[in-house]
Amino acid sequence: MITVIGNLKGGTGKSTVAFNLAVWLKIKQGSITLFDLDPQKTLADVVDIREEEGYDPDLEVFDDVSALKSWKNKKTEVIVDVGTSDFDSMKKALKLADRIITPVPPSQADIWSTQRFLKIIREVSGSAEKMPPVLGFINRADTHWGVRETDEAEEALNFLKHIDRIDLRLYQRTAYRRSFSEGLAVFEMQPTSKAAREVLNLAKQLYPAKK
């Protein structure tokens, strides 16, 4: 299954999500195919760090969108990180996607960006009826209980058409940045942390057959 992780706006944390899910899948099933189609190459960079440090399991990243088509309809899990800097590759990946995962930071600007992203998916698919499943969740949620932006963004996400909200949040935690910079999934560096529990919960919801 081809899972595309993306949004229009930068800073949504899509590469961190893609990387953590990829490590989890590699541990669970022994294989995962990764594509980094974002010219910033953040996902490729963190995989390079992981390789340099010799962490196991290892990962491999491809960057040629034309090779993605060969993975369609295969049983292998494929994760694709897309970015708007290469709009053509992003649209090709969206057209091949079996589903799309959209991390949404808690701001009105990100809700607007997500709305435009959904419009692009609909246009690429040909119609709303032909769109693959699109799943969204709040990423980088504020940890302070008194901040309302996260709740408001989640409520707004519920009203968007053609996207189903996953009932969980990933919060703005230092653990994500620290582990990512070291080439480790957050559950590898800090297995008992709140961040680790959040990512594992996301992974189990997205891949229930592989718990």
User: Which CATH C-level class is it?
Assistant: Alpha Beta
Tally of DSSP helical segments? 8
How large a portion of the residues is in β-strands, by DSSP E? 15-25%
Strand order of the largest sheet: 3-2-4-1-5-6-7
Return the string of H and E elements.
Answer: EHEHEEHEHEHEHHH
In the predicted model, the low-confidence regions spanning at least 5 consecutive residues are none
Q: How many β-strand stretches?
A: 7
Structural features, described:
The protein is an alpha/beta fold. The chain has one domain: Rossmann fold (3-Layer(aba) Sandwich). The chain has 8 helices and 7 strands; from the N terminus they run E-H-E-H-E-E-H-E-H-E-H-E-H-H-H. It has a 7-stranded parallel β-sheet, sandwiched between helices. The protein is globular and about 45 Å long.
